[in-house]
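In this section we walk through a basic example: taking a raw amino acid sequence and producing a predicted 3D structure, encoded as discrete structure tokens. The instruction is simple. Fold the sequence below.
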Amino acid sequence: MRKMSATLIHLPDLSDKEGVIDRIVEGLGRVPIDYVERYEFIRGRNEAGDRWLAAGVILLLHYQEGIGRESGFVLQLIKRSSEVPQPGDLSCPGGMLHPSVDPFLARLMVPRLTPILQGKALSLAKARGRNTYESLSLFLTNALREAWEEIRLNPFNVRFLGPLPSRELYVFSRIIFPVVGLVNRPWRFQPNWEVERIVEIPLRALFERANYGTLTVEIESTLPFRHQVEPVRDFPCFFYTPPGGREEVLWGATMSIVMNFLEIVFGFTLPEINSNRVVRKSLRPDYATGNHGPSSP
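The resulting token sequence is shown next.
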């Protein structure tokens, strides 16, 4: 495998704040999604005696003005604490759908009365039909409720930009329903016990070849996954070191969500992996449970 240069690839003009937002809304507004069908799949499996879960997550974008730094968009991800499943991983804020609370809250999210659903993103969502629009509202509500609980993000400080296709986590019997939101104003992070800290990744960094590598994951046989998995697997990953911080590794379902977003909006696909950047990670039994033991994240 040839070594790649550290040059930028397919880099769009990220300095045009409103232009980038319009591009995101347009791209996400027209991508096919399957929320209704996948949610019905979950209901069917549960009625048959299996246990599948639905989870809404939100990929948060924020435009940071350049005060002693370069202006631009950043992704605001959470680093999961040791108390929850998948400790130490980067993920989007969000969590499991609450079957009674979230449908109730979704009915309160009335367009024009809240700043969350508005403009072209709202029009494109409604154009998908009533059932799909209602499922979008449900999982947007689900993700925003969880973001409030995890990091105290005010839902009225978020503007819905569009949905991403669902993502199935087979080994966890779970389907993720991701939406994308813009954080309008700077806010003070207040992580709860589920979150170790917030990690902000500049959108520009995701277009740099040299930031991609391979994560070799060793999975202990005692891990209580519900389905059989290979003991050793290689995953593409993304490396980022915050100023004055430690190197973070983005991989797995969250990386898949991020890469899906980049491909839909910017036409950017995963570059050839840098063979010089390989790290190893061992998944111990508490990876599936956290320090609290068996639980549902």
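Looking at the output, two observations stand out. The chain has one domain: 17-287. Helices lie at 17-30, 35-47, 101-108, 119-126, 130-151, 252-266. In the next section we compare this with other chains.
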